[in-house]
Amino acid sequence: MSPHTKLLTSLSLTLGTTITISSTHWLMAWAGPELNTLAIIPYTSKSHHPRSIEAAIKYFLVQATASTLLLFSSMTNAWATGQWDITQLTHPTSSLLLTVAIAMKLGLVPFHFWFPEVMQGSPLITAMLLSTMMKFPPTILLLMTSHSLNPTLLTILAVASVTIGGWMGLNQTQLRKILAFSSIAHLGWLAAVIIYSPKLALLIFYLYTLMTITVFLTLNSTKALKLPTLMTSWTKNLSLNAILMLTLLSLAGLPPLTGFLPKWLTIQELTKQEMAATATALAILSLLGLFFYLRLAYYSTITLPPNSTNHMKHWHFTKPTNTTTAILATLSMLTLPLSPLILAIT
Amino acid sequence: MAYFVLLLGVGFVLGGLAVASNPSPYYGVVGLVLGSVVGCGLLVSLGVPFVALVLFMVYLGGMLVVFVYSVCMAADPFPETWGDWRVLGYGVVMVLMLIVGVVFVGVECWKTWVVTVDSGSIFVGRLDFSGVAMFYSLGAGMFLAAGWGLLLTLFVVLELVRGLSCGAIRAV
């Protein structure tokens, strides 16, 4: 890709995100995600493989439809109430349409069908951007309008997302699709609690982003795209492989790792809001996800593949440790004891 | 006058129907043209004729022309037509869905009222012209964001169609 295009698209990614999170008018809140969508299309179709181009087209169509719904909901609200303020979305039809539009952008069930295929068609780093940075503006829009959203709809979306994210991830061997379903499940947890405690939802998003970026950077260092490749990754970078196991278990939400914190606080908040049944359902349905995280951790670290290498070290020299991956991995495994500090800050 | 606006509204829905049930992009643009022409009429009825003229110029004169050029490069050479039974059936089913929708919502929605988007009695200027003037004064940031978006679109499209056979779908 030409350097000019790279510069322009990377600047536009930051500009689009910044415009959305700092906007008060619905028009700018619509323009930001549009900039993001346009900017990430060349990254998705970089390899010009038919699957990548199809993924780019699917991403563009879905996000454009969701942006149209967003604009429609804001215009309905403007027609009914006469103002375009994001925090004053009082018309009930508008808030329903907005929830549907953001659910399409985030990949919440039942608008999730595009997400695994788009992730599979993109390169690893683009898939990382798709599942972390491109989810940030729609989450912030949900946060800004959280007091006018319909609780029933969000709870239905949340429970369905956790179910489908866990269930559909069970039969996958391609790592990017597994991480797509993991993203759907985590965003389900976010949607469950966003009305009751928006700051907790933001914390869920930050911790999920941290853990997902760690996993993607680890996979990128060994270029592992599917489960069989993961099985021989222990020869390439031994310590990173062990850390991958712990990071995957952190994504699954096992104590004493960091990923337990969002689930713990969500269950506490939902119980305080007299929604213990929802909390129990979410916790039990996350066990489905735990199974495929365990399978990934098991196959990458505990099992020796049948086509094992005869030699413990791979043919090329050891790569130097990537500082970013190391720092993010440490943060994504060991920050549970800091939870009082995190709760005091957020 | 109100009935003319109602006719424009019906034309808009029919244009959307034509786009949705098109057997090929060549026939879809017919629906787009119909929809945008009556949409411009609806904008005039709302009281913003300048926006209607801008829509004509940019949408029909710019975007549709570029769309037709790209469709010529990529669409199939022997498309189905409107007269094929499958396409006709598809269109009939959509009209049926429209009728069901109207029945559910109630016939109230067919009662028309003519509303104009005026600036009330406070402003002196017209809403559409003064809006464009706002673009160059108070809304300069939005202007820059819009210009940046257009530049980005140009580069993204150039990047997507770069290369003869390793670009996107091409029939030529």
Please report which band the strand proportion of chain B falls in: under 5%, 5-15%, 15-25%, 25-35%, 35-45% or over 45%: under 5%
**Unreliable stretches of chain A, pLDDT < 50, 5 or more residues?**
none
Terminal Cα separation of chain A, in Å? 40 Å
**Topology of chain A as a string of helices (H) and strands (E):** HHHHHHHHHHHHHHHH
Number of domains of chain B: 2
Average pLDDT of chain A works out at 92
Q: Roughly what fraction of the amino acids of chain A lie in strands?
A: under 5%
For the report, how would you describe the main beta sheet of chain B? none
Count all strands of chain B and give the number: 0
Assembly status: heterodimer
H/E series of chain B, N to C? Answer: HHHHHH
* Secondary structure tally, helices of chain B: 6
- Amino- and carboxy-terminal Cα gap of chain B: 49 Å
The major sheet of chain A is characterized as: none
Overall geometry of chain B comes to flat
Compute the number of structural domains of chain A.
2
Describe it for me?
Chain A: It is a multi-pass membrane protein. Chain A: Keywords: Electron transport, Membrane, Mitochondrion, Mitochondrion inner membrane, NAD, Respiratory chain, Translocase, Transmembrane, Transmembrane helix, Transport, Ubiquinone. Chain A: It catalyses: a ubiquinone + NADH + 5 H(+)(in) = a ubiquinol + NAD(+) + 4 H(+)(out). Chain A: It is an enzyme of class 7 (translocase). Chain A: Belongs to the complex I subunit 2 family. Chain B: It is a multi-pass membrane protein. The complex is a heterodimer of chains A (346) and B (172). Chain A is an all-alpha fold. Chain A folds into two domains: 146 residues; 197 residues, no CATH class. Chain A has 16 helices and no strands. In chain A, helix 8 runs antiparallel to helix 9 and helix 10 crosses helix 15. The two termini of chain A are 40 Å apart. The mean pLDDT of chain A is 92. Chain B has 172 residues and is mainly alpha-helical. Chain B has two domains: 117 residues; 45 residues. The model of chain B has no long low-confidence stretch (mean pLDDT 80). Classes of the chains: A mainly alpha (346), B mainly alpha (172). At the A-B interface, helix 1 and helix 2 of A face helix 6 of B.
